[in-house]
């Protein structure tokens, strides 16, 4: 198996893009990000009419196939780990205890999680059945 140096991989798209095309791609990428949940309002400079985008790239990048295949082989193990953690309420609550104390978002999620645990998942399903839509 040969080692591939990722720093020498060439771009999949001829660069630089001309300014008109680049600006068009940027605007379309921002629209896509908003429509697919990759944008959020800033907590520091809150403005209901403005969002920040999660980091993303505009052009595809080459990626060594051998490294991609490693990720594909690891994914089932990660899925199993995530599933196991998600279904271990004691572990989750113990692990997130200190984060819950200092992070409002985590505290709110833990509050919802505790409510679900207290009311039971089946109770929430039966309530959803009468909701419109």
Detailed description of the structure:
This protein has helices at residues 19-35, 65-86, 89-95, 97-102, 104-119, 121-128, and strands at residues 39-40, 52-53. The model has no long low-confidence stretch (mean pLDDT 83). The protein starts with 18 loop residues before the first helix and ends in a 5-residue tail after the last helix. Strands 1-2 form a two-stranded antiparallel sheet. The protein contains six helices and two strands, in the order αββααααα. The chain has 133 residues and is mainly alpha-helical.
Largest beta sheet: strand ordering: 1-2
Q: What gross morphology would you assign?
A: flat
What is the gyration radius calculated from CA atoms? Answer: 22 Å
Major sheet: 2 strands, antiparallel
Number of strands: 2
Structural class: mainly alpha
Q: Are there runs of 5+ residues with pLDDT below 50, and where?
A: none
